Amino acid sequence: QVQLVESGGGMVQPGGSLRLSCTSSGFTFTDYPMNWVRQAPGKGPEWVSGTSYDGAYTYYADSVKGRFTVFRDNAKNSLYLQMNSLKLEDSAVYYCHVRSSDWWGQGTQVTVSA
C-alpha cells in the first residue's frame, strides 16, 4: 500500500531553517510529480511547492518563492523541502502529496516562533 512519511518538522525561530523529508513506498515514485501542501490552524490547505517527476521542473507559491527549495532523490524515493528564512506565517502542518492522487502523508508540524 502507498505510504508517505514526512519528517524534519520542529520549532524554529524566525529567520531559521528546516529541511523536511518525505519518504515514499508502495508506488513507483519516479512516475509522479509531487507537491508540498501546508495547513495552518483555522485555515484551508495551501499549496506550497511542486516538482516534476524527474525534479527538472520546480514550482513555488509566491509566499515562499526565494526562501524554499523543493528537490527529490528518486533513487531514495524521497522528496525534500529546504525552508530558509522562515517566518511566523510559515507555521503549519506540512504534507507531501502525490500530484493528481489521493495519496497524502500524515504531515509534520512546523512552528516558527520567537
What sort of overall outline do the alpha carbons produce when their principal axes are compared? globular
The percent range for strand residues is over 45%
Taking the alpha carbons of the first and last residues, their distance comes to 40 Å
What kind of sheet is the major sheet? 6 strands, mixed
The helix-strand sequence is EEEEEEEEEE
- The number of helices is 0
Q: What is the chains' assembly state?
A: single chain
Question: Mind telling me the C-alpha Rg?
Answer: 13 Å
Query: What number is the mean pLDDT?
Result: 97
Short recap of the structure:
Helices cover 0% and strands 48% of the residues.
Defining traits:
114 residues; mainly beta; six-stranded mixed β-sheet; four-stranded antiparallel β-sheet; 10 strands; 0% helix; 48% strand
Folded structure, characterized:
With 114 residues, this protein is mainly β. 0% of the residues lie in helices and 48% in strands. It has no helices and ten strands. A six-stranded mixed β-sheet has the order 2-10-9-4-5-6, with no helix packed on it. Strand 5 and strand 6 (58-60) form a beta hairpin. The radius of gyration is 13 Å and the shape is globular. The model has no long low-confidence stretch (mean pLDDT 97).
